[in-house]
Amino acid sequence: MTTEPTHDLAHLGHHGLFTPDPEGTLHYFVDLLGMDVVAQDGEATYLRAYGDYETWSLKVIGSDQAGPAWVSWRATSPQALHRRIDWLEAHGHAGRWTPRDRGIGPSYQFTDPDGHVFRLYYDTQRYSAPEGQRPAIPTGFQRYAGRGANVRRLDHVNLLARDVPACRKFWEEGFGLRTYEIVRSADGGDESAAWMSSSIQGHELIYTREHTSANGRLHHFAYVVDSREEVLRAAEIFADARIRIEAGPSRHTAIQGFYLYTREPGGNRVEVAHGGYLVFAPDSEPYIWNPKEWKGKPGWGAPLPPEFHVYGTPDTVR
Amino acid sequence: MTTEPTHDLAHLGHHGLFTPDPEGTLHYFVDLLGMDVVAQDGEATYLRAYGDYETWSLKVIGSDQAGPAWVSWRATSPQALHRRIDWLEAHGHAGRWTPRDRGIGPSYQFTDPDGHVFRLYYDTQRYSAPEGQRPAIPTGFQRYAGRGANVRRLDHVNLLARDVPACRKFWEEGFGLRTYEIVRSADGGDESAAWMSSSIQGHELIYTREHTSANGRLHHFAYVVDSREEVLRAAEIFADARIRIEAGPSRHTAIQGFYLYTREPGGNRVEVAHGGYLVFAPDSEPYIWNPKEWKGKPGWGAPLPPEFHVYGTPDTVR
Amino acid sequence: MTTEPTHDLAHLGHHGLFTPDPEGTLHYFVDLLGMDVVAQDGEATYLRAYGDYETWSLKVIGSDQAGPAWVSWRATSPQALHRRIDWLEAHGHAGRWTPRDRGIGPSYQFTDPDGHVFRLYYDTQRYSAPEGQRPAIPTGFQRYAGRGANVRRLDHVNLLARDVPACRKFWEEGFGLRTYEIVRSADGGDESAAWMSSSIQGHELIYTREHTSANGRLHHFAYVVDSREEVLRAAEIFADARIRIEAGPSRHTAIQGFYLYTREPGGNRVEVAHGGYLVFAPDSEPYIWNPKEWKGKPGWGAPLPPEFHVYGTPDTVR
Amino acid sequence: MTTEPTHDLAHLGHHGLFTPDPEGTLHYFVDLLGMDVVAQDGEATYLRAYGDYETWSLKVIGSDQAGPAWVSWRATSPQALHRRIDWLEAHGHAGRWTPRDRGIGPSYQFTDPDGHVFRLYYDTQRYSAPEGQRPAIPTGFQRYAGRGANVRRLDHVNLLARDVPACRKFWEEGFGLRTYEIVRSADGGDESAAWMSSSIQGHELIYTREHTSANGRLHHFAYVVDSREEVLRAAEIFADARIRIEAGPSRHTAIQGFYLYTREPGGNRVEVAHGGYLVFAPDSEPYIWNPKEWKGKPGWGAPLPPEFHVYGTPDTVR
């Protein structure tokens, strides 16, 4: 008999981002990506995208260096939240509770095997747009302003890890994430990337190989727009704002999403993304790429520059 | 404590369609929508879209009149399949098994409260494209040929029902479908439409009010394309093929999808669709439209012609 | 022997627009359409779109009622300018010179047979973007900011006229405009619309039938965006900004352009447009629609509301 | 006083293409690009795109090697045709008449300074689609079938030349083509590319530096689709048809068009293109890139592979 999947994680939630250049970072997220500031609190600024149902989804935090502060998941129910905490505590990954933060949480904070900080929560606050900011159709959350790249919401996060399979198994076994693609050698000894999701979307959490001795680093956060055409528009916006484009617009082989990579002025890599397949089969097995087939780069799409595979934040290897 | 959702249905599966004009219907699905014939068997033809992971997804069946032969769901596991059958049999909806059909099934056949035929199955056959039809990227299922409207897969089905809330509750209670939008009067006595889904997609199964005394009728099947631009292209293709366009291209208020409605030569209404929101919140409540707000048609989008609300197949009211 | 066309008009130039609500009108053009203010002078504001090579292209003028102040054409050379003025003066259409206005002109002002004010000029000033507003690629004119509907430039103007053929012939005979489509009855006695251009673009100047006793009225100005997808985005922006959408997004039969009509808060109708065919054949004859074929509305596209055919500015018939 | 431009060339017309693999070449143009065969005559096949107003626009000719047979221009009038022939004969470029070919011509054949064969004609035959192939809107030429990349028409041609400025001046002085961009060193001694047009479109005829001792070679023919989204679709189609993609989809710096390059099975390079700016100013000067600025590649867009700059047909340097 098939083992049945668990459904305890609903979606990626709020995340925190460190930046040594808060002003530049906010200019990038607000004026170029099109997100809105919902609150400010000392060194921290709370932002939301127009498609977020929760009050906020990104906390930009002034710091001495760039990097991820945390990534979070919303659990599907209070019971699901507690089941996952029980699993963490039973498997040597006990964390601690962090208090409610501007309507969201409390959150249970812990680390993945590479040391990235994660938070798990259920309680949240739905966004209620102020008068003048409500959308015409009430099933939306906020007026569509069409500013800059106009990202709709966070799509996925890519983390660097020295031991990709250890991280992958942590989420598969502990949280029921499904893995849709893996790059690894025939003997399984060399696994360099894995694409995972809590839903039918092809990727929410990606691990790719950390090539340095650092740990807990961010490869990129990806925000989604509604069409490939909007990814192309974003390239125009970034180019004219003199934000260097690291890669794209082009198409990834894995998950087949359309991408554009820049770095926000604080140094963190950010993707503007559209597409990627949906996985409807409840019993699909991950597609295993062997390194040779992977490097053959079937299909279409521009080559990625070498720095794409090594740069992360904190940029510890400069 | 919150009741936790069940996840026993994975997605809409194969469906059957009756047509009094098999030749015209096949021309429509193959040459205009861009689907492929995978097998023929007397009066029945098996078709697939290029994004289907299963071998086939549509069985066109010659008959004396148009209409839906069946709609199906694939269960998430063998256990899930049996849990749902147990529920059906325990609640007075017992059906019967139908045999395996060209690699898919056996399926358990039953009816919803309005008399529409449904099938439930788990066993299936993944499509293996013949040499020359394989996509360059092996996570795809079939070469992208770009013929006609080039639909990727079935998106949702809309069924007419005399008692919309009865049908809605049948799926909510028996199968754990989530309802994302409802149109009904303040006193709840007049519910005219409901949009339901087994996943984060805004709609898979829709019920709208049957205005005649008929039962078990189809409003439309919707096939999805990759962009709104492709819906516009489809309009060009249909117009020049002299297929009358009933409505669109435009945008629906409910679920916010972009639509185009035609009728295949057999008479069944078919939508070419793109978009519609995704529902990430695991605890979102359905949005309840009152009829006045609904008729106010907030947002943008062309008005639907009167026939849109009354025509269905079989076209029993001519 | 074929008569050879003249090429004395290069393109539609700057235009002036009266508004009883300058603040509302500027909000519309700047925040929603995405144009920029380049100068202010009492009741007049000078605007440009990011694709304009000239310094400004629209002068919004506070007034007691909405309506067109003038439409202009840039001549292809000083000689061409004088040839056209000679023609005007020789044919009883003498006008007068208006002085240089913020870098553009002097312009020769005259009226078409319906009394619309036109200006003809050659001298102009190329836009030089200030530091920080320059595009990355120097063949552009201005940074691509992607604000709101983000219109690129004026595309065409539609004027109401009591005698459409008289206006059409005025431009054909006096200026060498080419007419690409005409709607008229078989006996030629009833001509209700004509689409004209100085270039390969399907329409720059349109005349449609004035149904009132007024003269010199505006039907609409149309601004162009880069894709149909951007017309759809504009609909979202207008709807959420609570600007009523009069028609579209949909596709016109004439010239086959994709359209969206709203009225700026001052009352003037404005189109956000994309597409329309190009006419390469130097010897193409206008396509003559008879009224019956025209009303049959071949192809696809939503019906236009009745007000579309009667409303104009000044709104003299209220 | 400004010199006034001539307008004797209307647009690029029919062209001939040599191929050593007629079957493969026809598969490419018909099944992948979506063009139609209108006639066959021994080793020659006549093709048209759905947006061509003339009967045919491409003659594929079996030969021992790939390469351009000829490029043509349609003159704006019979007088214009004879004026240009007079110029050719007066300036030492006399050619000869070639007979009418399936409704088009006679054509006057001559060579540019690099030895590329050109034809000039006025007489032509408008396409009359057979019953069942007529578009719904009668201003179109042919039913929109949406097959494969579905190119609308020829957009531009790029020819390799050992002496780019000589070729550029030939067209400027002899035919009134306008040059919109040039790449050349500060001292003018090194001119490596020029983009020219007979209309407001940014490019119809391009010359780029020939790096071998060959002459008369083709860099590429470009066919246009209606949106950047369709260029991306074309990449999918080519990739899955196992046609190698040489470059793109991405965006060019010059003229700013969106591109995708493949080679048809006979070896000729073909672009699927969309966009590129329009030049409205009648007095715009060419933008002169110095090689350093040019290599700095401002804006966005993938780098071109080295072979892009050297490969041409005939492929004499293998």
TrEMBL record, chains A, B, C, D:
Residues in VOC domain copies: 11-123, 153-275
Gene3D superfamilies: 2,3-Dihydroxybiphenyl 1,2-Dioxygenase, domain 1 (3.10.180.10)
InterPro entries, per the entry: Glyas_Bleomycin-R_OHBP_Dase, Glyas_Fos-R_dOase_dom, GlyoxalaseI/FosfomycinResist, VOC_core
Pfam families documented for this protein: Glyoxalase
Superkingdom classification of source: Bacteria
Position of the signal peptide: none
SUPFAM superfamilies on file: Glyoxalase/Bleomycin resistance protein/Dihydroxybiphenyl dioxygenase (SSF54593)
Designated name of the protein: VOC domain-containing protein
